[in-house]
Amino acid sequence: MPTYKEITCKSILSRSRIADVDYSINPYIGCEHGCVYCYARFMGRRRGHLEEWGEFVDIKVNAPQVFSREITRVKMGPVLLSSVTDPYQPAESKYQLTRQILKRLLHYDYPTSILTKSALVERDIDLLQRFKNCQVGVTVVVLNEEVGRAFEPYSSLPKDRFNALKRLVENGVQTYLFLGPMLPGFSEEDLEEILDECKRVGVHHVLFDKLNIKYGNWSSITRVLDSEFPERKEEWKNALLQKGYYKRLKNRIETLGAEKELSLISCY
Ligand code: SF4
């Protein structure tokens, strides 16, 4: 169980350098999903946290009110919830900051996109289906539950994430599957089944990306490989050091995607 701390923020709309996103909104600092490969772990150091990534969550309790103030002062542009946290991590069940911010975004009808690994996103279908321009991305990188528990210990099970996607699609919300970052070997083993699930639930498109180890995540990845999958470590090193691995994987995804008539977008 992570340590929760209620804090106040001065600002909640951050200018974003992500393609097609003008602003990101992060109602929480830290993420109790605690993914081993997470790129956002620098946020802990930046905010002076000594705990491991996943063991702390700062809750910006005044975020909805600050958002209401800020939104009237900026030029309208696409918003992402969230870039360095999961907006539907367990704390959201209690605090409902994402939901309150969504209500305000809906009021102004801001183009909004969401990215999560949590089935809790289903709770807000009543709001999401009323946006003119909104899309919800749900991340799935493996289906194997043992591998998932090792690398994404506290997020929703992949089958629950697909069920959430299905409910979103059935309720008219535009969705996509984020297949990233793809874990060497493991994601490839589940690839065909993941794409079949995408077809079954009817996602609008599949966005895929490779794993990057530039973000201080390699030491936590190594710990998991050493303790849970020592026989796979060499394979990971080869995949990450040799450019050919992800190129081959991309070709395979494109071939399978074409066979299954899925719309694909590559991040690399
Ligand atoms: S859900 Fe996203 S933000 Fe949270 S730990 Fe995992 S990768 Fe990081």
CATH superfamily, by name, is Aldolase class I
The total count of strands amounts to 11
Task: Kindly estimate the percentage of residues that lie in beta strands according to DSSP.
Answer: 15-25%
Q: CATH topology, what is it called?
A: TIM Barrel
Main structural class: alpha/beta
Count of separate structural domains = 1
SS summary, helix count: 11
N-to-C order of helices and strands: EEEEHEHEHHEHEHHEHEHHHE
Radius of gyration using CA atoms only: 18 Å
CATH top-level class: Alpha Beta
Shape: globular
Q: TL;DR?
A:
The protein is 40% helix and 19% strand.
Report on this structure.
This protein is α/β, with parallel strands linked by helices. The chain has one domain (3-266): TIM Barrel. The chain contains 11 helices and 11 strands. The chain has helices at 42-46, 63-71, 91-95, 97-108, 125-128, 145-151, 158-170, 186-201, 218-228, 233-241, 244-260, and strands spanning 3-7, 13-15, 23-25, 28-29, 56-60, 79-81, 112-116, 134-139, 174-182, 205-210, 264-266. An 8-stranded mixed β-sheet has the order 2-3-6-7-8-9-10-11. Helix 2 packs parallel to helix 4 (97-108) and helix 7 (158-170) runs parallel beside helix 8 (186-201). The longest helix is centred in the C-terminal third of the chain and has 17 residues, at 244-260. It is globular, with a radius of gyration of 18 Å. It binds iron/sulfur cluster (SF4). Residues 31, 33-35, 38, 40, 85-86, 117, 155 line the site of iron/sulfur cluster (SF4).
